[in-house]
From TrEMBL:
PANTHER family: ERGOTHIONEINE BIOSYNTHESIS PROTEIN 1. Residues 22-322 form the Histidine-specific methyltransferase SAM-dependent domain. SUPFAM superfamilies: S-adenosyl-L-methionine-dependent methyltransferases. It comes from Ilumatobacter fluminis. The keyword Methyltransferase applies. GO terms for molecular function: methyltransferase activity. The lineage of its organism: Bacteria, Bacillati, Actinomycetota, Acidimicrobiia, Acidimicrobiales. This is L-histidine N-alpha-methyltransferase. The keyword Methyltransferase applies.
Length: 323
């Protein structure tokens, strides 16, 4: 018997456009210019990211899948979890192996996918409830910087944050987020975190400047999002994709570079934005970690790493931490 999914919806109506307007007003009038990566993932952007994950040069998705496939049983046994919470769940592809392993271990009662997109979440919840009879799927539509405290933490929960998404956060945001995770966690809770590891620059550059140009399409699509959502008049041929390695922050830095001096009207945000020739707009960072670095940051939030697994090639890590 399938248990019908339930939902908590914390984000309503025009929340997205309002947040975008705020960011455009502050981020595009500042110097250097920057926006957060969340705007990259409209329907087209999500499709392009999916294509990126299938590129031979883009190792993180397959590497993490390998870890989850080989360690899922161990994770289920070790934690004894009755609840799996997945932050930024999207279509919950990443958690399939985990859910199957938890099914087998026989203790999982509840799955809580957490995402900003109500539509994606409802779709995923319906499929998962069908696939795992007896599992209560409780979807939460929210922003994990704001609504983590509202996620149920009773019983024995595992809070999963996979896909190297933590790499998108700046150091201060990471510290704040780990603090919020630690606050949410009880002594019985576990934190399952996926991180990308520091590796030679040529591999990173190949993954973020792929020869097929899919990553370039992905970052340039941001300008389509601004054109559509805010009635802006970005000319995509006036910008190019730039992916570089920032050794000081051990992160890939993805930017759009203006090929000429130009002015863009962003009607929906009531601003005009000037770009100089060669001026860059940062659209995403992708931080790479060492095991020591991520362990120290978690420790600073009061969390202790109990397990740390990598894929065979040692490209990405998945760790299990507790209070
Ligand atoms: C989805 C944030 C993990 O940082 O590797 C891939 C996004 N951007 N190629 C990453 C991304 C360009 C990706 N994350």
């Amino acid at each position: 018997h399938a248990v019908p999914p339930t939902f908590d919806v914390h984000l309503h109506g025009d929340w997205r456009v309002r947040a975008l307007i705020d960011e455009v007003r502050s981020g595009l009038t500042a110097s250097p210019k920057q926006l957060t990566p969340r705007w990259l993932y409209d329907d087209r952007g999500s499709e392009l990211f999916d294509e990126i994950t299938r590129l031979p040069e883009y190792y993180p998705t397959e590497a993490e899948r390998e870890i989850l496939l080989t360690r899922a049983g161990e994770i289920a046994e070790r934690t004894g979890a009755d609840t799996l919470v997945e932050l930024g769940s999207g279509t919950s592809d990443k958690t399939r192996a985990l859910l199957d392993a938890f099914d087998e271990a026989g203790r999982l009662r509840r799955f809580v996918p957490f995402d900003v997109s109500e539509q994606t979440l409802k779709y995923a919840a319906a499929i998962l409830a069908e696939r795992h009879p007896g599992l209560h799927v409780h979807g939460v539509v929210g922003d994990f910087h704001e609504h983590l405290a509202d996620v149920p933490n009773d019983g024995v929960p595992v809070l999963a944050f996979l896909g190297s998404t933590i790499g998108n956060f700046y150091p201060d945001e990471r510290a704040r987020f780990f603090g919020e995770v630690a606050d949410w966690m009880t002594d019985d809770a576990w934190f399952l975190l996926g991180v990308d590891l520091v590796k030679p620059i040529d591999r990173l550059m190949a993954a973020y400047n792929d020869p097929a140009g899919i990553t370039a399409q992905f970052t340039l699509n941001l300008l389509n999002v601004l054109n559509r959502e805010l009635a802006a008049d970005f000319d995509l041929s006036g910008f190019e994709h730039v992916g570089m390695w920032d050794p000081n922050h051990t992160r890939v830095d993805l930017r759009l570079r203006s090929l000429r001096e130009q002015s863009v009207a962003i009607i929906g945000a009531e601003v005009d934005v000037e770009f100089g020739e060669g001026e860059e707009l940062r659209v995403e960072i992708s931080t790479k970690f060492t095991r020591e670095q991520i362990g120290a940051e978690l420790a600073a939030a009061g969390l202790v790493v109990e397990e740390f697994w990598t894929d065979t090639a040692g490209d990405v890590g998945v760790l299990l931490a507790r209070r």
